[in-house]
Amino acid sequence: MSAAGRTSTRDIARAAVRAELGQVAFELFRREGFEKVTLDDLAAAAGVSRSTFLRYFGTKEDAVLSAFDAKGERVADALRTRPADEDDWTALRCALDTAIEPYHQDPDGSLAMTRLVRDTPALCARQLEKQHGWRPALARALAERAGFAEPPALGHWVRASAALDCLNVAVDHWTDSDGRLDLVSLLDEAFAALAPR
Amino acid sequence: MSAAGRTSTRDIARAAVRAELGQVAFELFRREGFEKVTLDDLAAAAGVSRSTFLRYFGTKEDAVLSAFDAKGERVADALRTRPADEDDWTALRCALDTAIEPYHQDPDGSLAMTRLVRDTPALCARQLEKQHGWRPALARALAERAGFAEPPALGHWVRASAALDCLNVAVDHWTDSDGRLDLVSLLDEAFAALAPR
DNA sequence: GGCTAGCGTGACACTCAGTTTCAATTGAAG
DNA sequence: CTTCAATTGAAACTGAGTGTCACGCTAGCC
């Protein structure tokens, strides 16, 4: 969308270019390794200038990780649509179905992406940072569900964080199994591991 | 320690210089802001060359965060000394007392440090990354306690991660209260928030 | 159908973090 | 005192990210 809010022809073109650049970057990173590839390499491979590349993605990491940006909000939205009388854990678990959808849509691509991120410290760190940024929205969504006004309570923060850990642990194990294990079961198992006192 | 294992005069000097450099960096960052301060500024303020500064701390972030490096191992060690029949949550909660000790030793310094880190995206990210690196040791310690041989089960990873979240949430709230709330109570409360199904 | 204002782009210069190399110095051990 | 290894500082280099500016294309307007 442009600043005015209307989706123009230009915005569509921009999104297409962005997707294309991201794809080129992903393939180059996979083939050569993230740190071997310079911004100049990326720009050359994509047929644009270094300046342009950096205008689409503020950093090298974001060329690959910008796909994650919307995820946090989507999970928070899913959380808000859960029935009000549902307990936090069930609501969180169900909201995370939103987050694992892509892994079912495109298992091979997701596997490759997860591996690339896991094997690249810079990407790993940046992804951690992004996920950390999801927590306020999740905690706020939990607080709203509880009927509280704004400031989420300590418990909401803890449960939001723990749920994200479950997601990460489940995805890690799924990746270690080369995508053979069932991600839904792993996620259930992760949540279950939180329960026993 | 030098490579041989013996602690020599040089090693003592090194440690002293390292502590001094860290202190200078911390004060400069607090006064001017992390990103305003360049490596040249740091070196000049500490009276050493840029090269030397970078030899002591591989990155600008580590000048302030290298204090955290040992923490993960210390918590894992504390975990291993807990009675074998204790449940994971109790053991984790008690092991984390090791981690919050510095906050009682030097509340003002800890408060300043926590704020600096929280308000500086680069430091926040780097700290997150370091903490992420603690999880393997914690998960392994839990697995050992359970009598299992090496590969920690999914549940161990989940509980190790959740415990670290509790620590972080507790410290965040403690910081927000300007250190007025009791960190031990906050940590207890955080762990309690994990329980209710 | 031209005109123009604005956006996307490329070129370039710049700052700064981090790496590497090398020569000079220091200080501990024999 | 001499020798040898470790510490340091100087300097050159790579690469990420920022800022500026001028050019060209295109959408919208008369």
TrEMBL record, chains A, B:
GO terms for MF: DNA-binding transcription factor activity; transcription cis-regulatory region binding
Pfam family, one: TetR_N
Domain HTH tetR-type stretches: 15-75
Alphabetical list of InterPro entries matching this protein: Homeodomain-like_sf (IPR009057), HTH-type_TetR-like_transc_reg (IPR050109), HTH_TetR (IPR001647), MftR_C (IPR041347)
Keyword terms of this UniProt record: DNA-binding, Transcription, Transcription regulation
DNA-binding region: 38-57
Gene3D superfamilies: Homeodomain-like (1.10.10.60), Tetracycline Repressor, domain 2 (1.10.357.10)
PANTHER family: HTH-TYPE TRANSCRIPTIONAL REGULATOR RUTR, MYCOFACTOCIN BIOSYNTHESIS TRANSCRIPTIONAL REGULATOR MFTR-RELATED
Full protein name: TetR family transcriptional regulator
Species, as recorded: Streptomyces sporangiiformans
